[in-house]
Write a structure and sequence with these properties.
This protein has 263 residues and is an alpha/beta fold. The chain folds into two domains: 4-184, Rossmann fold; 201-258, no CATH class. The protein is built from nine helices and eleven strands. The strands form three sheets. A seven-stranded mixed beta sheet has the order 3-2-1-4-5-7-8. The protein has a two-stranded parallel sheet with strand order 6-9. Strands 10-11 form a two-stranded antiparallel ribbon. The termini are far apart.
């Protein structure tokens, strides 16, 4: 008998590929929880399109909790709840729902980088190693027992937030595949307590991006370079402006040339 799962994610190529792989691996996906069409995502990023292609039921998380409360039989024999870059806190009814595991796949090493800003903090603070994590979900965000952390070397003097995300997503997808393969094979997943760690919330994240006296400007620009989102910012006359250096301008110019956007 195949395993039954709920898959929760945001729109990203790695998440869409993870769902596609999960279905092809023979896991019966009872529900896919993801945002509505954001309007600016490529088809390759859209988890909902993968769900539609395989005829999977789409839901939002509020509706899912309501179905659990009502005792929906489609959800009563679920083996796995899988969060892949899902951005909202997972609550107790869903944590306790699966027969086997409720797992989160987190795009940063744990326990040192919980919450937001993993890429940014790693570059700002000169990490020479980064990583991605799988952990059991607890009620407090990113604190559950660890299944596995995969680490890899990085160069904080050249990485940008975008380049580190691209590398990390490949590693996270491979981690997802390896963990699910173990579950399908009937192996028991480890539970390694995390201990103390750092958590960055939205308020701290937004303050980190502000350029302040003593900051290494070039490093801060790279640490928050992730178009189209605001980067490292300065505040003038009550407004925030993103800083761009010559290296980022050259990068954009090359993209424009390849796209034919030249006079």
């Amino acid at each position: 008998m195949s395993l039954r799962a709920i898959f929760m994610a945001k729109h990203k190529r790695s998440a869409a590929r993870a769902l596609e792989w999960l279905v092809e691996r023979g896991v019966e996906v009872r529900a896919v929880v993801c945002p509505a069409d954001p309007g600016d995502a490529l088809d390759a990023q859209r988890v909902d399109l993968v769900a539609e292609r395989y005829g999977l039921a789409l839901s939002d998380d509020r509706s899912l909790y309501e179905r659990i409360a009502c005792g929906d039989p489609e959800l009563q024999d679920v083996d796995l709840v899988l969060s892949f870059l899902f951005w909202r806190r997972i609550e107790r009814p869903l944590i306790e729902l699966p027969r086997l595991y409720c797992l989160n796949f987190h795009p940063a090493p744990l326990p040192e980088l919980r919450g937001l800003g993993g890429y940014n903090v790693a570059i700002l603070e000169g990490y020479r190693e980064y990583g991605v994590s799988c952990h059991h979900v607890a009620e407090t965000i990113d604190t559950g027992d660890i299944v596995r952390v995969v680490r890899f070397p990085i160069d904080p003097d050249t990485e940008t937030a975008l380049s580190l995300d691209l590398r990390s997503q490949e590693a996270l997808l491979e981690l997802f595949r390896s963990v699910i393969d173990e579950v399908v094979a009937g192996h028991e997943l480890p539970r390694i307590p995390q201990g103390a760690g750092r958590y960055v919330d939205r308020a701290e994240f937004e303050q980190l991006r502000v350029v302040r006296p003593g900051d290494v400007i070039e490093r801060k620009i790279r640490a928050f370079w992730y178009p189209p989102y605001p980067g490292a910012v300065i505040e003038l006359e009550g407004r925030r402006f993103t800083l761009v250096d010559e290296a980022r301008l050259r990068e954009l110019a090359a993209i424009y040339r390849r796209a034919g956007w030249v006079p």
